[in-house]
Amino acid sequence: MAILTPRHRWLRDHGASAPGGTRSGNPMKACAPQAGTPGSAIRMAVVVPLANESDTINSFLDRVLAQLGEADRVFCVLDRVSKDDTRQKVEARAAADPRVVLVWAPENRCVVDAYFRGYREALQAGAQWILEMDGGLSHRPEEIARFIDAMGTGVDYAGGCRFMPGGSYSGPWSRYILSKGGTVLTNLLLGTTMRDMTSGFECFSRRAMEAVLKHGVRSRAHFFQTEIRWLLHDWHRVEVPINYINPSKRVGTASIKESFANLWALRREQSLRQKRGGPRRSRSPEDVMLGLDPPPADNPARHRGQP
What we know:
Blueprint: H1 6-13, E1 44-49, H2 57-65, E2 73-78, H3 86-96, E3 100-104, H4 111-124, E4 129-132, H5 144-151, E5 157-161, E6 168-169, H6 173-190, E7 202-205, H7 206-215, H8 224-231, E8 237-241, E9 243-244, H9 253-277, H10 285-290
Parallel strand pairs: 1-2, 1-4, 2-3, 5-8, 6-9
Antiparallel strand pairs: 4-7, 5-7
């Protein structure tokens, strides 16, 4: 019978993948940057697309920075969608605190472009963990510590979850139905098992983010976060309880239609893979990054991080 260490019990209780996917060695080594990585002094990079947040940006940055160390960074991504003086306020904070980094991206065409630009900037800076969150205070900065604790156990992905013990949702019922219903439908169609497939409060290891950027996403709206969770479902992961507060933006009809279209496209893609190689199988992180298919169906090998 397998012996559960305190680390394994923490992962089990918080929705992590099976202990068989854990790494050997000291799990707290994940807290330290890996040697040889450019700019590896940066531990955590927080990626935050911003638009018209002038009234709350200083409070938001104060609360985020209070959770971070001197070796962490906040990448504030702005583009032409922002019409107020949010950019000027971020520039002032960046001049006063090197942990605040303004990323001006006028070429962005959608919210996905903003996030991916922030991801690339974080990787280029050498960050070992990349956390994304909403800049409109839908996500509580004080809960960043939960992601730091989770990543410190050695997982590759920590996803915020509103629908687990310790998590909550506060907002319109219409948004709750979309989020919860989207999770149920995604799990049903794609065979995933996460309790929250639609949250945008999540943290990645460096190699997981590299795989996401290499693979890319179909969606040009917020469904891309569901795509990412689908992509990383078989990685070494954990869900972290979060308390989601009244959303700052409504979801438009076009975004909902796009989400359904992309969900069905992923379902078709998965069905084609199953026809070619049998039932849905896990790919290792290395396979995903190299674009390799899973092992043949008759291969008993089980990949690291498979639930």
